[in-house]
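To assess whether the prediction recovers the assembly geometry, we first specified each molecular entity separately, as shown.
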Amino acid sequence: MTFLFEGFLEGLQMVFQGNPAVYNAAWVTLKVSFGSTLIASLIGLPLGYFLASSSFRGKGFFTVLLQTFLGFPTVVIGLLVYGFLSRRGPFGFADLLFTPSGIVIGLVILAFPITTMFTMTAVSGIDPRAREMALTLGASRQRTAWTLFKEVRFGLISALLASFGRVASEVGIAIMLGGNIEGYTRTLTTAIALESMKGEFGFGIALGLVLLTLIFITALLSRYVQKL
Amino acid sequence: MKSYSLILSILLYGFLVSSVAAYERLKLATTTSTANSGLLNYLNPVFEEKSGVRVDAIAVGTGKALKLGQNGDVDVMLVHAREAEETFIQEGHGVNRKDVMYNDFIIVGPASDAAGINGMDDVILALRKISEKSSLWFSRGDDSGTHKKEMILWKESAISPSGNWYRGLGQGMGKTLLAADEKGAYTLTDRGTFIALSTGNKIGLIILSEGDSRLFNPYGAIAVNPERHPYVKYKLAMKYINFLTSTEGQSLIARFRMKGKILFHPHNGS
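The predicted structure of the complete assembly is given in tokenized form:
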């Protein structure tokens, strides 16, 4: 028990002393997590709405495709994106490997099925009469969509939160595409992987505490926004 | 609605600004043992200060580091696998290899030393004993510089290690040492990672065999061939390599201490 206890104490110390390595990693995590959640939402929210509210041939197929993406092993995502971004790959010219942007690309692929699915579920849950009601009252197509969005904002907030939590906790993609470069692409999770490999348990705890705090703050913020 | 678009604009602005006000970056592939030693955190800031360039050190196994250079995904490499480096240059992937520094490998194991190799100067005899006794041995198994050295030593002992006692972990040196400590296994390690872990009571393994000239571990810096990959930052890579081999770089390496112990010896002995 002393091992755990000492590690925890050491971790707390590092957090409150403002250890720069810890906070640099936190900043990188925030950057890539916000960035990827943002883009995944820009893809997922309209896509989810579209899939939920229209019927077309092949809709079933797209839903199955989405389910597959949802269960995609993250190391495979990392591997495939690496293949694309490497100099020998088709997008090598963009010089995105071992940069935060490279990580974001991988995380977006991880996150957009989450945002899409959550949105689909939320939109499907709307009373179908709400749409008819809006149209009857003279709302345009866009106004109708916006009205329905307001109905499902809880579901959408959950989509953003779930996506953020997932990408902030991701290790494999961040290491493979980012290269764990100190101060540049080293996230809280990749730093934990590194420090635990070096036997630095206390340091790992410090990083873990900060990560949990970030997730907790996000949960608080989303609760606040929901109440608006 | 207004507050949402304000937040969005701030975020996008921040993103754009951070990408525009960017430093020039040099990508260095190096090994996990080199990076974990802390040497680069000591050396690179000096270079960054002088050149105004950021050095991105990507720490992977030697095999991967060379592969990154071969693919042109990095600009320069600092590795320690002489044979593989020679092949790399012969195949035209890298140019201008320079000797930077050296240290050594050691065989470590449990204090109980069931194979009885403690104090053996001859590493080949030590390995033969371990194999004879089928003592638990953990290998890196990951094509790293350490792994390559290990396989060369087994070859010299005319042994093809296999069986229940020989385990390839596919992990970095730190993890391998931690595992060997847990299970009471022997392993080959670079001195640096061992020093880092053994001080502070993180592991109980001890040094059992050291000093054999075959355990010599030289480090070389290689620039990725700009003829193969025209976009690599060749000039910067050479600037970095020249810094490492300069009087300043070499004396910094000589002065570097880990937990108070000398870790690397500069090639141009100071």
